[in-house]
Amino acid sequence: MTASDTVLATLDAGVLKLTLNRPEKLNSFNEDMHMALRAQVVRAHEDTAVRAVLLTGAGRGFSAGQDLGDRDPRKGGPAPDLGHTLETFYNPTLRLIRQLEKPVICAVNGVAAGAGANIAFACDIVLAAKSAKFIQAFAKIGLVPDAGGSWSLARILGEPRAKALALTAEPLPAEKAADWGLIWKAVEDADLMPQAEALALSLAAGPTLGLGLTKRLIQAAATNTLDEQLDMERDLQQQAGRSADYAEGVTAFLEKRKAEFKGK
Length: 264
Ligand code: T3D
Description:
- This protein is of the alpha/beta class.
- The protein is 47% helix and 16% strand.
- It has 2 domains: 3-204, 2-enoyl-CoA Hydratase, Chain A, domain 1, CATH 3.90.226.10; 208-254, Lyase 2-enoyl-coa Hydratase, Chain  A, domain 2, CATH 1.10.12.
- The chain has a 6-stranded mixed β-sheet with strand order 1-2-3-5-7-10, with helices on both faces. Strands 4-6-8-9 form a 4-stranded mixed β-sheet.
- Helix 2 packs parallel to helix 3, helix 5 crosses helix 6 and helix 9 (208-221) runs antiparallel to helix 10 (226-241).
- The protein starts with a helix and ends in a 10-residue tail after the last helix.
- The site of ligand T3D has 24 residues, from helix 3 and strand 6.
């Protein structure tokens, strides 16, 4: 399997659909898949034709995190430097997803474990099939949550639930993840891709510049004071107010027609 086969990519109507594609290994990450996903996220940054990203997995799982076959201690040699592998593979991709000023939708089609779960939580809007579950599998193998998981779980859930999930590795069913606010919603399995695709299409037809600034603003709120956030809202609204899509949005409202946003 070549790097490009490990992540399938299609661009249609502004939606870059990325499918993690190692179904026989529950889409666990080997180096090829890491680099293929990275390349596509970089493409999403650079290509103005991309106005939304939809991430999902092939087969019955979303992703089981790191491919543990690539970490087999029985093969001998020194212990792997996992700090180095995080810095080389997971962290740059996570940062690129968060920095991308376009909506990233994640359709969790099945089990999401370890870094697989935490990559999903880094996306902007997460839909999951009701049969899917999220597992902080790290505790089962003596590791700590990574790929941003310790950050997103603690921030979104608070310490009690974050610690319990991380220390026990107990699977969290999709509906409970939605009840807890960890994901946007859990939907019937058969409805997952139609709903995720419709959402991605609708966002891709939206005012991309304004949506991207909105993402930046909401992400900044976690560390800003109210004063800093008010200043940031002022500055980004100034920028949004100068966009062609704002002019189109207001004109369309006044003309009682659907806006035709160009993403600028
Ligand atoms: O290393 C670094 O760079 C540091 C970064 C670490 C990030 C991490 O993500 S660490 C955490 C790694 N992931 C795990 O520990 C999860 C391991 N997998 C599981 O616990 C289970 O597979 C699941 C709970 C996710 C699903 O269970 P189940 O019963 O539905 O499926 P299964 O039978 O266990 O798996 C199906 C196949 O996928 C199976 O292959 P086989 O026997 O049919 O040939 C299994 O070995 C394979 N598979 C599943 N997860 C992984 C995997 N192969 C390699 N690596 C995996 N992570």
